[in-house]
Amino acid sequence: MKAVAAALVVSASFLAVAVVLAQTRSSDKPPVAAASKYHPAVYAELQKAPEKARNRANPLESDPHAVAAGAILFEQHCAECHGEAAEGGKKGPNLRAAEVQGAAPGAIFWILTNGVVRKGMPVWSKRTEPQRWQLVRYVKSIGEAARAAESPAPKP
Question: Are 53 and 4 members of one domain?
Fold first, then answer.
């Protein structure tokens, strides 16, 4: 009986994921590189990162747990301003925007570390470096997932 109940729960979960993916694929608006409702100057802050910072590679790039850890940190500390789906909120800009997804990981890390206080982005330097890199990995993964969902399935 427990096995049947567990199988039903798993099946319902797969069904829910399939419905969400189908809705995402049939949506008229692309999940990445969507037109931003934010002024371009908001995203220009990424270009202000020093070259040395922009050139930093994410040491957690290939860590399989970094995206999940970053998602938890995002939910706890970032979603309030950037929205649950990182599509922008009352205070924070859309992190799915092409400007963010095209930015170097080091530039995003630099913004997290230094903030943009005059525009409402807090300084996160009290978070450990690994935590900030996990957030960078999560933000970049949003774009990776959206690009994967947009690409057509390979033909056999």
Answer: no
